[in-house]
Amino acid sequence: MDSIEKKISELLKKMTLDQKVGQITQPERQFVTPQEVKEYHIGSVLSGGGSVPGDNTPADWIKMNDEYWAASMEADDNHLAIPLIYGVDAIHGNTNVKGAVVFPHNIGLGAAHDPDLIERIAAVTAREIAATGVEWTFAPTVAVARNSHWGRTYESYSEDPRIVSEYAPRFVKGLQGDFGEEKVVACVKHFVGDGATTHGIDQGDMNISDEELRRIHIPPYRAAVKAGVLTVMVSLSSWNMEKCHGHKYLITDILKKELGFDGFVISDWDGIDYLADSYEESAVMSLNAGMDMFMITGRWKEFIEYIKKNVKSGRIPMERLDDAVKRILRVKFKFGLFDKPRPAERKLSLQNSIFGSLEHREVAREAVRKSLVMLKNDDDILPLNKNARILVAGKNAHNRGHQCGGFTVAWQGVNDNDPEISGSYTETDTESASPRKNLNISETNSLILGGTSIWEGINRVVPNTDLSIDGSAADPDKHDVAIVVIGETPYAEMLGDIRVGGLAKGLNISKGSTSEDTLPGEDIPIMKKGPYGTHLYLHELHPEDIATIKSITSKGIPVVTIMICGRPLVVNQELEQSKAFVVAWFPGSEGQGVADVIFGDYPIQGKLSFSWPRYDDENWNLGDKDYNPLFPYGFGLEYK
Ligand code: GLC
Question: What ligand 1 atom has the least distance to the C-alpha of 49?
Answer without folding.
Answer: 12
